[in-house]
Amino acid sequence: MPKPLTILCAVLLAVMLASCGEDEQPVKVSLRKRNEVAVKLPEPAITYAYLPQYSHSESFQRHQQLVAYLAEETGLPIRQVFPETFTEHISMFGRGKIDISFSNPFVYVNLASQYNAKAMTRIIEEDGQAEFRGQIIVRRDNESIRSPEDCRGKSWVAVDPASAGGYLFPLGLFVDHGLNLRDFKEVVFSGGRQENVILGVYAGLHDFGTIREGSLRVLANKIDIDQLKVVATSRSYPGWVYAYSPRLPKEAVDKIKAAMLKLDYAHNPKHRAILDAARFIGFVPSDDRDFDPIRELNRKVGLAGE
């Protein structure tokens, strides 16, 4: 009886022979000749990252013009990189993969504490302020939640444990109203995306959500945001901050900071277009002391070690 291996070889040989036409000659393949495939690595550049509170496409659309302007104005090679999560943003900064970080003040305080990040500028929000707030949102037809106290025992979806407007600021608001984390049915996070919080509340998957003020507009063309309402808004805290790595040369920092402060929303149409895309209207100088209110809030909500 033929052995299984013999039968298998015979079948393979038959298939190979059948695949060749009468006029076809077998092609000899030499394994001695090999071509190395070159992998093109990115050119050395100063890396710029926007804390990923929105999708990568949204982050790119908001910041591509600003990154191009900074590169042109300073003469420095600058490119945007895209961390997947808040945690990865922090880790990449620590590993030297991010030179310029654009983040919320809570993440900045962590970067300053862990990796000696230095504040450079804060943004001026579209309302003309260099501060921002967090909000509690519910479906408009949810009559059971009309105040922060009504959130007791309910399901909460927040942006990320490191989100300022989407978690920390509202948590401080809840503490001011006598609630802490154990008073909620559950607290879940949306993977760092403001959109996911909004959609989770809109779909009725959670009783309420917390977002940074102004985030509802991002989905205005995708859902009926009139079906949602703001129950409460936190106090204002220092706004989003540009910070730089201690590895970045001072000359480069000075050039980038000067280019940011040069942007003129009121009188320069090109600058206005850049800032409109980024969803803010300018910059103010900043340093580490601006963020002491965030450190105080951390202590109040039990995050003093962050």
Q: In oligomeric terms, what are we looking at?
A: single chain
Main sheet specs? 6 strands, mixed
> How many beta strands in the DSSP annotation?
13
- Estimate the mean pLDDT confidence: 89
Instruction: Output the helix-strand order.
Output: HEHEHEHEEEEHEHEEEEHHEH
Shape: globular
Summed up, the domain count is 2
Provide the low-confidence segments as ranges: none
CATH fold descriptor of the largest domain: D-Maltodextrin-Binding Protein, domain 2
Please estimate the helix content: 25-40%
Specify the CATH architecture of the largest domain.
3-Layer(aba) Sandwich
The end-to-end span amounts to: 74 Å
- CATH class of the largest domain, anyone? Alpha Beta
Radius of gyration: 27 Å
CATH superfamily of the largest domain: Periplasmic binding protein-like II
Strand order of the largest sheet: 2-1-3-12-4-13
- How many helices? 9
What is the beta-strand fraction? 15-25%
Q: Could you say which structural class the secondary elements and strand pairing correspond to?
A: alpha/beta
What does this molecule look like?
With 306 residues, the protein is an alpha/beta fold. The chain contains nine helices and 13 strands. Helices cover 35% and strands 19% of the residues. It has a six-stranded mixed beta sheet. It has a five-stranded mixed beta sheet with strand order 8-7-9-6-10. Strands 5-11 form a two-stranded antiparallel sheet. α2 links the parallel β1 and β2. α3 packs parallel to α4. The chain is globular and about 70 Å long. The model has no long low-confidence stretch (mean pLDDT 89).
